[in-house]
Amino acid sequence: MEAAVMERERLTAEMAFRDDARAAGGEWAPSIVIKIRRRLPDFARSVNLKYVKLGIRHGGSVTSYLPMLCVPLLASAAYSFVRLDVIYRSIDLLTCVAWLGTAVLLLTVYYFKRPRPVYLVEFACYKPDDQHKISKEGFLEMTESTGCFNDAALDFQTKITNRSALGDETYLPPGVQARPPRLNMAEARMEAEAVMFGCLDALFESTGINPKRDVGILIVNCSLFNPTPSLSSMIINHYEMRADVKSFNLGGMGCSAGLIAIDLAKDMLQANPNSYAVVLSTENITLNWYFGNDRSMLLSNCIFLWRALRDVPAVSPPPKGKKSCNPWVDCVAKYPPKAYV
């Protein structure tokens, strides 16, 4: 039986020994028997297990066990004080103080342990200058002019570029467009600074947030470019942020780093109320442009371009009249794929 079939049917093979090694005709038979049995499901790998974890986590929250604690207390109180005369005779100052203190304690615990809402205040996308704009035809001509790719690699890049969602008004950093290409640390740093500072300037201008005073949490994620000092340190020094700003620089996590950064910002805002968190998701391609003929690595040349997304979550409510927004949907509406990717 094939391994794939056994895995799908949850079958397992077991070795057993016969008590009597003689067959029915008196001849000797093999004493080892292979038995195929159905094993128990692997609960650790089950997708539904995550819902059990969520239920246990929710069951242990303050909002769930506080009513469970109040119901028995109210039931016992109603059972003890059935008649008004019993209530009148049993209540004294010490009892009132005890009940009032218990209620205040429970409300205080609930107030400080309750989950605080996290709001998205604003977001901004980076759009480079027109001098860095390049069309699909210009990109393919630039690729061919390098002389580093064979015919098969050029045909592959042409197919990927034409079938992708990229338009004729996308952008590439100047180090990649130069002839010969300037793929060095200085160009990569220039690309990172242009993306980060250009986007942050627009973000702070639209929100009115003072980066020197208001920003308490800074999270930057960039998988392919992680210099020393870090990108988050560059931002802190450029905007002269507070000395106690909580800075995080995520690298080498790929596309999942954006979600990880948002989750980290939410946790940090829960622990540090009345604060603003700036989350930057970007990528750097100057030092990661591939000049070879491996198709799996050529794919990144065709789909990774110059861009960044930055948003500001906060635990304080947004200003009145400001709607909540979806950064990805609104960003596409503001810079459609035809004009910006």
From TrEMBL:
<dbReference type="GO" id="GO:0016747">
    <property type="term" value="F:acyltransferase activity, transferring groups other than amino-acyl groups"/>
</dbReference>
<keyword id="KW-1133">Transmembrane helix</keyword>
<feature type="transmembrane region" description="Helical">
    <location>
        <begin position="62"/>
        <end position="81"/>
    </location>
</feature>
<keyword id="KW-0012">Acyltransferase</keyword>
<keyword id="KW-0472">Membrane</keyword>
<dbReference type="InterPro" id="IPR012392">
    <property type="entry name" value="3-ktacl-CoA_syn"/>
</dbReference>
<dbReference type="GO" id="GO:0016020">
    <property type="term" value="C:membrane"/>
</dbReference>
<dbReference type="GO" id="GO:0006633">
    <property type="term" value="P:fatty acid biosynthetic process"/>
</dbReference>
<feature type="domain" description="FAE">
    <location>
        <begin position="111"/>
        <end position="304"/>
    </location>
</feature>
<protein>
    <submittedName>
        <fullName>Os03g0245700 protein</fullName>
    </submittedName>
</protein>
<keyword id="KW-0812">Transmembrane</keyword>
<dbReference type="Pfam" id="PF08392">
    <property type="entry name" value="FAE1_CUT1_RppA"/>
</dbReference>
<feature type="transmembrane region" description="Helical">
    <location>
        <begin position="87"/>
        <end position="112"/>
    </location>
</feature>
<keyword id="KW-0808">Transferase</keyword>
<dbReference type="InterPro" id="IPR016039">
    <property type="entry name" value="Thiolase-like"/>
</dbReference>
<dbReference type="InterPro" id="IPR013601">
    <property type="entry name" value="FAE1_typ3_polyketide_synth"/>
</dbReference>
